[in-house]
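Predict structure. Input: FdtA/QdtA family cupin domain-containing protein, 135 residues.
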Amino acid sequence: MFSVEDCEVVSLQKIKNNSGNITVLENNFDIPFEVKRIYYLYDVPMGSERGGHGHYELEQYIIAASGSFTFILDDGTNRREIFLNNPSQALHIKQGIWREISNFSSGSICLVLASQNYSESDYIRKYEDYLKYRS
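Output follows.
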């Protein structure tokens, strides 16, 4: 099983130009898995929290497309906070990690690239169940 230390912030290639920057991501090249689902969180009220679940199989690349937010990662033994505010960086969350998201700035957009299509059976919704899974 993976730990919170196996989850890392990855620098993405940023192509600079006088008219703006671009970052390109390709399956199995820039991202170590094939992206099967893309979604994004936005208009999250300040003070709100999201996440609060784990996944058995899914892994994700998380990008602060705009603004900032904090991911709290938990492997049942260790917790780690990661602040994201740079669209040329991605947080790679491995399988089996509990995640919570907080401290959304005004206008933030949390872009998620996921390795699996949506499947409710892949979610661990209760922290007590997560701790049983990890032990």
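The chain has one domain: 4-134.
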